[in-house]
Write a structure and sequence with these properties.
Layout (H helix, E strand, L loop, with lengths): L1 H13 L3 H18 L2 H17 L3 H18 L4
Length: 79
């Protein structure tokens, strides 16, 4: 389910339906946390951060990017 909501978020983001995209990414985070997919959670936080950045909400963007970084660091992800 986490991947499904992530893909819905990507589709909404591509259509510039940012509030709907953020909601979809947040639901994806819930499912991905439940399944232990920490890298997937980080991907969602990155996407949410990008949307906030586009919208000029830099404080929220930074908070989302920092959440993503914490997730990556917790699993030793390097890309």
């Amino acid at each position: 389910m986490g991947d499904l909501y992530y893909n819905i978020g990507v589709n909404n983001e591509n259509q510039r339906r940012y509030p709907e995209a953020i909601t979809s990414y947040q639901v994806s985070i819930k499912y991905r946390e439940e399944s232990g997919n920490k890298v997937g959670v980080a991907f969602c936080y990155r996407k949410i951060g990008s949307i906030y950045d586009i919208q000029g909400n830099h404080a929220e963007a930074l908070a989302s990017f920092l959440n993503a970084l914490k997730c990556y660091e917790n699993v030793g992800y390097k890309d």
